[in-house]
Specification:
Largest interface: A-B, 28 and 21 residues
Helix content of chain A: 25-40%
Largest sheet of chain B: none
Number of helices of chain A: 9
CATH class of the largest domain in chain A: Alpha Beta
Strand content of chain B: under 5%
Number of domains of chain A: 2
Order of helices and strands of chain B: HHHHHHHH
Low-confidence stretches of chain B: none
Number of domains of chain B: 1
Oligomer: heterodimer
Chain lengths: 249, 218
């Protein structure tokens, strides 16, 4: 059984239909990359999965549990929060909390969501995660004291701390200077295999090498999907070819 | 004479300080409530609150003092404030609190709206409740942003307290002016300026230290 089943997700803003029926499955431990030009609906799709937007139609099922059903959308705040916790999201702009240290950013939500009983364990786990991100010596720094690449790695640790079933990345390196993208991509690469991930990215080489499957989105639909290497190296659709060659030119 | 004047002015300044501190104690939290009202999703709450803010910010504080003190007697035929000093002080306090709460609410609103939406979204994605997002994420960032404009208002408030004398609330200028009639001297009135200066100087130092305390993050 796939860990994630997305069926016929539709989303309209005012009069523009941004998602026109998106369906895909994802197996546990697999990495999916979503590519496509800006305005194709990639980010909106991620935001729908993370309950930052409410789809107009469709269903989202994780491990067989239907988290969202457009036919009877949940309005209860508590239930919405619980559903959202199945997903983690790493933002393009990091969105770290400036008044907290790197470690506090990572532990804030777990500490607020749990009892004091596990406090020490949560802090230990936070330190461990930052260590994995190569930030052992940066735990007590505030976000403004960190480079963009370091901030994004803190943001990844923060998302991992809640142990989401599926970790999503929304163009995680787009706001970074070119020389800083490498360190972030390396960290994401190291997570592949152990985590189920969805990555919206413009880094085609990265998408090809790290992802198992890839989706090409265009105008709110999935135009092409398949094994990542195949889709990016030899796309079937003319529109996908156009998009990929426009990146190389 | 100097000591007589000084002790009389100190007495008046005590009235000034009482009005100043009580206004802040009530206006700072009330401003936050008005702010939430003016940002409410419900039009029935939002528009009446915005109307009130417009009226209060659009008319002189001196006029508001007069309306609150004399209004009930003129329009309702009841003297709610009594005839003693305490009643006049209460009326002045209410006028000051309403006036300053409206100004504060707009400063809060500006502060809240200047916090990037990504902060809230990060909180949502991390499963925080709306209350946790406000208190754990927004509040300190908000305080940092509003310290400079709020300190501006609060220093204005020190001086605005002198308006209370239009409804005969005893404060320092009232006492200073009394010497013109009683002793025929005007310098006590000018001397009051020193009290304002010293006090606003202390406030400036106080707010600078808060700003410094919050400079550990950006």
């Amino acid at each position: 059984m796939p860990i994630l089943e997305v069926k016929n997700i539709k989303k309209k803003f005012e009069n523009t239909e941004v998602l026109k029926g998106i369906s895909f499955d994802l197996e546990e431990g697999q990495t999916l990359s979503i590519i496509g030009s800006s305005g194709s609906g990639k980010t909106t799709l991620l935001r729908c999965l993370n309950f930052l937007e409410t789809p107009d139609e469709g269903t989202i099922t994780v491990r067989g549990e239907k988290l969202f059903d457009g036919a009877s959308p949940v309005t209860d705040h508590k239930r919405l929060r619980d559903c959202g916790l199945h997903f983690g999201l790493v933002f393009q702009q990091f969105n770290l909390f400036p008044q907290y240290t790197a470690l506090e950013n990572v532990t804030l939500a777990p500490l607020l969501n749990s009892d004091t009983f596990s406090r020490e364990k949560i802090i230990e786990n936070g330190k461990h995660l930052l260590d994995d991100m190569g930030l052992a010596d940066r735990m007590f720094n505030y976000p403004h004291q960190l480079s963009g690449g370091q901030q994004q790695r803190v943001a990844i640790a923060r998302a991992l701390a809640l142990e989401p079933d599926i970790l999503c990345f929304d163009e995680p390196t787009s706001a970074l200077d070119p020389e800083l993208t490498g360190e972030v991509l390396r960290v994401i690469r190291s997570l592949a295999g152990n985590h189920t991930m969805i990555i919206v990215t413009h880094e085609m080489a990265f998408a090809r090498d790290v992802a198992d499957t890839a989706i090409f989105m265009d105008g709110g639909i999935i135009l092409e999907k398949g094994p990542a290497r195949e889709l990016i190296n030899s796309p079937r659709e003319e529109r996908t070819r156009q998009f990929l060659s426009s990146l190389n030119s | 004479m100097f000591w007589t004047v000084t002790s009389s002015l100190l007495e008046g300044f005590a009235g000034t300080l009482k009005l100043f501190f009580l206004t802040q104690i009530f206006a700072l939290p009330l401003g936050l409530i008005i702010c939430f009202g003016s940002m409410s999703r419900s039009a029935i709450i939002k528009y009446p609150i915005r109307l009130i803010i417009w009226i209060i910010r659009g008319t002189p504080l001196m006029l508001q003092l007069l309306v609150i003190y004399y209004g009930p007697g003129i329009f309702l035929g009841v003297n709610v404030w009594g005839t003693d000093n305490g009643g006049r002080f209460t009326a002045a306090l209410i006028a000051f609190v309403i006036n300053y709460a409206c100004y504060f609410s707009e400063i809060y609103r500006g502060g809240i709206q200047s916090i990037p939406v990504g902060q809230k979204e990060a909180g949502i994605v991390l499963g925080l409740t709306r209350r946790q997002i406000f208190f754990r994420i927004y509040l300190l960032q908000l305080v940092k942003r509003i310290v400079p404009p709020i300190s501006n208002e609060i220093i204005t408030l020190v001086k605005d307290t002198s308006l209370a004398r239009v409804i005969a609330v005893y404060e320092i200028i009232w006492n200073g002016q009394a010497f013109i009639k009683s002793s025929g001297i005007i310098w006590p009135l000018f001397y009051t300026g020193a009290f304002y200066l010293i006090f606003s100087g202390l406030l400036t130092v106080f707010f600078a230290s808060i700003e410094k305390k919050l400079s550990y993050f950006r």
